[in-house]
Write a structure and sequence with these properties.
Blueprint: E1 6-10, H1 14-25, E2 29-34, E3 57-60, H2 66-76, H3 80-87, E4 89-90, E5 95-98, H4 100-112, E6 117-121, E7 133-135, H5 143-153, E8 158-163, E9 167-169, E10 178-180, E11 192-197, H6 199-211, H7 232-236, E12 263-269, E13 276-279, H8 288-295, E14 306-308, E15 312-317, H9 320-323, E16 329-330, E17 333-338, H10 348-366, H11 379-389, H12 413-439
Parallel strand pairs: 1-2, 1-7, 2-6, 7-17
Antiparallel strand pairs: 3-5, 4-5, 8-15, 9-13, 9-14, 10-11, 11-12, 12-13, 16-17
Length: 447
């Protein structure tokens, strides 16, 4: 083991908290730096750690989906935040959605009460390359820290813009133009409120949406939008039918109305009581007044009370193929690991996985053991392989999907997905067994 068996972690978001908990439970002293009590980012509202600033959904739990398989991998690796998510879940069909306040509060209290974790409320601007460190600042990294990190790794700043969807009050919705149902009746409960539009209503809505005024951004001509979080007004400008093939698709729900809906806006429960509803896929950069005006053209929302308007903010990330190896370690600075969205993974669960994976390799590193990677036939391995081996030209963050997973080509989709699942879990189990042998050499865990 290295002389210094303590680790600095910068950022108490999803990745940082997962990494801190794992290392602390294996006897490693952690200094967890968090700046939000001093300086919040534009997207942060709560004082708690692991704050979910966008949707409250952690996506599908179906084993034969990439997102569901990622959760199974994390469950096998005893992921702390996934356990918290399940304890704080709210009904959402075949997805894992959480009461965001309960979720972050549970994580915050656990982290604060861990004897091996020291919380340091400080804005970190510089990185000491002599100290083992995990940078997990999230996509809204402090500007000075990101600038210094960019100088350290020698690549230009990369960024994209992320958008948040509005939240509306259930009591303010016209239920004569909405119905509860999940697509294709998946799930044991009806978790989505579906607001339907006729063809004429849809066309008026799209026209007003595409002409609505947006918040002016600095250097807007350089805007790079991540495809997985496309502002609804940007998507609408790609063509009149683009929304009907995207967040407003009417499939799987037509049997619930007297006439077949031409388009559907789905609202998902945002809290345990279901009084707050998130407009699924409606992340936006419209001016607040324009959001009220345009979204009220959806008949069910004509009198809607907007509890939170959508916003748009800059997300920063490193050009991982240039500077990060497959172990989440900076190529030129072995003491420094990078985790979460700043590393180039996209999504809540992907960030959690990145935090756990970087912590595992940090533990191996400070124990003087060989670092371990997962094959790209697993979701975690595929994510790490993608962000570290892709072309650095126009590199963009990536989320879990079958397209990046290495697998045998089969014509039968279900057979292919089952083979991917079986292969992945086999490798994860082997990885876990080897890891636990090394972990047994580390100091006892703190309960």
């Amino acid at each position: 083991m290295l002389n210094n068996n303590s680790v600095n972690i910068i950022g108490a978001g999803l990745a940082g908290c997962e990494a801190a908990y794992f290392l602390a439970q294996h006897g490693i002293k952690v200094k967890l730096y968090e700046m939000k009590s001093i300086k919040k980012t534009p997207a942060q509202k709560s004082e708690n750690y692991a704050e979910l600033v966008c949707s409250n959904s952690l996506k599908s739990t179906e084993p034969l989906s990439a997102s569901g398989l990622l959760k199974l991998e994390l469950e096998s690796l005893d992921c702390f935040l996934l356990k918290c998510a399940k304890k704080c879940s709210v009904p959402s069909g075949n997805a894992l959605s959480v009461d965001r306040e309960k979720f972050s509060d549970m994580i915050t209290q656990t982290i604060k009460n861990n004897k091996n974790i020291e919380i340091i409320n400080q804005v970190v601007e510089n990185i000491d390359t002599n100290i083992p460190t995990i940078i997990a600042t999230g996509p809204l990294c402090d500007d000075k820290l990101f600038q210094n990190l960019s100088k350290l790794i020698g690549n230009d700043n990369c960024y994209f813009y992320d958008a948040i969807a509005p939240i509306v009050s259930l009591d303010s919705i016209d239920m004569t133009r909405a119905f509860w149902a999940n697509r294709y009746d998946k799930g044991e409960t009806q978790d989505y409120l579906n607001c339907w539009l006729t063809k004429d209503e849809y066309e008026v809505f799209v026209k007003e949406l595409t002409n609505a005024k947006c918040v002016e951004l600095h250097d807007f001509e350089k805007l790079k939008v991540f495809e997985g979080c496309m502002p609804v007004e940007v998507l609408a400008k790609r063509g009149e039918r683009s929304l009907r093939y995207g967040p407003m698709k009417p499939v799987g729900l037509s049997q619930h109305t007297q006439q077949k809906p031409y388009a559907i806006v789905q609202l998902r429960k945002e809290n345990s009581s279901g009084t707050c509803l998130n407009m699924v896929g409606f992340q936006t950069n419209l001016l607040f007044g324009e959001q009220k005006r345009v979204f009220s053209l959806i008949p069910a929302l004509r009198n809607a009370e907007f509890l939170r308007y959508g916003t748009m903010h800059r997300n920063s990330y490193i050009n991982a193929p240039n500077c990060l190896n497959v172990y989440s370690q900076l190529k030129n600075y072995p003491n420094i690991f990078v985790a979460g969205q700043i590393s180039g993974v996209e999504g809540y669960v992907e960030s959690i996985a990145s935090g756990l994976y970087s912590a595992i390799n940090m533990l191996l590193y400070i124990c003087g053991e060989k670092l371990q990677s997962l094959p790209p036939s697993t979701v975690i391995g595929a994510l790490m392989n993608y962000i570290t081996t892709s072309s650095p030209v126009n590199f963009q963050p990536m989320n879990a999907n079958y397209g990046i997973i290495d697998h045998q080509r089969l014509d039968d989709k279900q057979e292919k997905k089952q083979l991917i699942l079986d292969t992945s879990l086999k490798y994860i189990q082997k990885f876990k067994e080897e890891l636990w042998k090394v972990c047994s050499k580390a100091q006892p865990s703190v309960q």
